Every structure is written in C-alpha cells, then in structure tokens.
C-alpha cells in the first residue's frame, strides 16, 4: 500500500552569522531523513519510533506532502505521489490532492462547529464532481461517529468535549474521507496516561475493524509495541531496525535499539567459544553462555543484552544444575505493583532483575542470579 524508497530530506543548517561577521559559515545541512526505505502492507499499522529529532515527523510530513523531499520516491496504492527518479521529470503531488487522512498531536478541531459538522466538513469541501449528496454525507458522518463512539454527541459544540473525545473527533474527521492511508503523528501525547492507554486500544480496534493502513509516529516504545504490526526504529535520519514488535524487543540488532526499547542490562565481553548456536562469552565478572544465530568469530567484542525479566533471583544456589548462575548482593528493590525489581551488585556490574512481586528480598542479602541462555541477546558492538 505504501512504498518509500531512498527518501532524503535535508534542511539548511543554522547560519551562525553575527552582525559584525556576516560571512560566518553556515553550519552543515541537517539530514533529517537520510536514505529511508520501507513498505507498509495493506491494512497494517506501521510505526516510526525513535527519540526526539531522529526524523520521524519529517518522514511523515513528506508522505503527507507537507515537506518536499530532496530525493526518493513515495507511492501510495500504486500511485506515485513523489519521485525524483533519474532521467525523469520530478513529480510532487500537492498535499491537498493526495487524499490522505492525517491526525496530529494538536487535534485542531474546528471550535465553532458541532461534532457532526466537524466530521462533515471534509466531505462538503470536496471538488464538485466528487461531492456527495446531503443524505449520503449525513449517513457517512453518523457511521464514523458511531465507530468512534461519538454518535450521541453529534450536536454538541466541539469545544465542549473532553480531551479524549476531541482526539476521537479528530480521528473521525480523518477517517470520514475513507483515505487509503492514515497518517498519525503522536496523536495521543497530549492526553493523560490513563486516557492515552484506553485510546490506544480504541485506536487499534478501529484500525483493525476498518482495515485501514496507517503510519504512526511516536517516541513512546510501549505505545509502539502495543499498537504496531511493524516498527521502524529510527536514529539520526536512518532506520536502524525494522521488524515486528516481538522481534525488535527480543532481538535488538544494536545497543541503541536494546536501550531504547524497554530496559536492559548490558554485559561487555568477548567470544571465547562457539558450538553451533551456543556461544560462551567472557566478561570481567564471569562467563556467560547463550544461544544466538549470529555468526561471530572467536575473540569478537560483544555486548550481551539481558532483559530484567530474563534474570531469576534466588537465595538458594543451583550451581552445577543450570548455566549462568552468578553470585551477588541485593543493592535496592522497587515494588512496581504487578512486578518487583531488584538491583543486584555482581563484581563490577549492577544487574536489574524483574519478577513476581511475591519475591521480595531485603537489600544486603546474598543472592544467586540465573540467566536463561535462550533469553539473552548477543549485540554487536556499535
Ligand atoms: N524546518 C526545519 N528546519 C531545519 N531543521 C529542521 C526542520 N524540521 C526538522 N528539522 C531538523 O530535522 C531533524 C529531524 O526532525 P524531526 O522533527 O523529523 O524529528 P522527530 O523524530 O519527529 O522529533 P520529535 O519527536 O521531537 O518531533 C531534527 O534535527 C530537526 O531539528
């Protein structure tokens, strides 16, 4: 449904020109999007995830037609919206002719209109040939309002809605034109945590029910994991990893991704032996064995990423029965409601563990940490 190929968008750097030195050099151009390619299948929710400034919004705005890329191609449903293919005339379909649905962080509903009119407006301003009759508009608006659970508020003035209802209205307005592609830029970030969580599921339900292909921008990894069929993790204008949520969480391909998605312990070491998929890694505090499909030669410097939930903490030893048992001392613990974290000092390392809240061990206690080889991830050194 959506194909992005080799998209590049740069901006002028800041001109450090002072009044007394007008010839001061301009800073290098900022490559907000630097050779980004990805495809989104029909009916999928695809998320661009990354820290502030990594190029998510610029990618989305380029798809929307609100930024003019330097080069690349953008295709929606087989229709080329932007292209700078060599030897061909550049093509750039204006934003208002792309027919895409957009929802932004600031929901920008029209305050002087009712809920119904807000949703009807995009249909009423369609070009004469494409315009629907009054009855058809009314039916379509009410259908979308029902999906968004706003039908009973159709006559209410838009400003007299709660934040969550206003955001649902913004979504209804984007959906009513039945766009081939829906673009969402941090649509939930203005809402409080509880509302954000409930709207997240609502959004997923609507997206799945309507089968609408969507591109979602967020810096919130929990939101990305909960909502997406696929995630592209971005850094400095590049996509560093692209995959399904579980793949990205369980098999981050570099330290940046492992750090950005969830919490991880990192153990530096080097490969001392390899037998099939089973690696042995030496660290300053002991050996670790783990399973990895990576193909790394002996002596390679690596990082072993250990998710807190992959570490079992216990006051009794099973030395000799299971691999990867390390002895340490509990430094702190934190009760998180549905789980309990211990931070355990082992030599030079401090490892965070996460487990059932019924296991709570006093700081200062000597404990044994056990790490399941199948749950550890070998991450190449960046
Ligand atoms: N109009 C502009 N002029 C100059 N630089 C810009 C412009 N828009 C974006 N940039 C720069 O491009 C880079 C990517 O910005 P972008 O807004 O796409 O990032 P983002 O990942 O969406 O960040 P955020 O989550 O903070 O919105 C940043 O370094 C930003 O400063």
From TrEMBL:
<keyword id="KW-1003">Cell membrane</keyword>
<feature type="domain" description="ABC transporter">
    <location>
        <begin position="2"/>
        <end position="261"/>
    </location>
</feature>
<dbReference type="InterPro" id="IPR003593">
    <property type="entry name" value="AAA+_ATPase"/>
</dbReference>
<dbReference type="InterPro" id="IPR047641">
    <property type="entry name" value="ABC_transpr_MalK/UgpC-like"/>
</dbReference>
<keyword id="KW-1278">Translocase</keyword>
<keyword id="KW-0067">ATP-binding</keyword>
<keyword id="KW-0547">Nucleotide-binding</keyword>
<protein>
    <submittedName>
        <fullName>Polyamine ABC transporter ATP-binding protein</fullName>
    </submittedName>
</protein>
<dbReference type="GO" id="GO:0016887">
    <property type="term" value="F:ATP hydrolysis activity"/>
</dbReference>
<keyword id="KW-0472">Membrane</keyword>
<dbReference type="InterPro" id="IPR003439">
    <property type="entry name" value="ABC_transporter-like_ATP-bd"/>
</dbReference>
<dbReference type="InterPro" id="IPR017871">
    <property type="entry name" value="ABC_transporter-like_CS"/>
</dbReference>
<dbReference type="GO" id="GO:0140359">
    <property type="term" value="F:ABC-type transporter activity"/>
</dbReference>
<dbReference type="Pfam" id="PF08402">
    <property type="entry name" value="TOBE_2"/>
</dbReference>
<dbReference type="Pfam" id="PF00005">
    <property type="entry name" value="ABC_tran"/>
</dbReference>
<keyword id="KW-0813">Transport</keyword>
<dbReference type="InterPro" id="IPR013611">
    <property type="entry name" value="Transp-assoc_OB_typ2"/>
</dbReference>
<dbReference type="InterPro" id="IPR008995">
    <property type="entry name" value="Mo/tungstate-bd_C_term_dom"/>
</dbReference>
<dbReference type="InterPro" id="IPR027417">
    <property type="entry name" value="P-loop_NTPase"/>
</dbReference>
<dbReference type="GO" id="GO:0055052">
    <property type="term" value="C:ATP-binding cassette (ABC) transporter complex, substrate-binding subunit-containing"/>
</dbReference>
<dbReference type="GO" id="GO:0005524">
    <property type="term" value="F:ATP binding"/>
</dbReference>
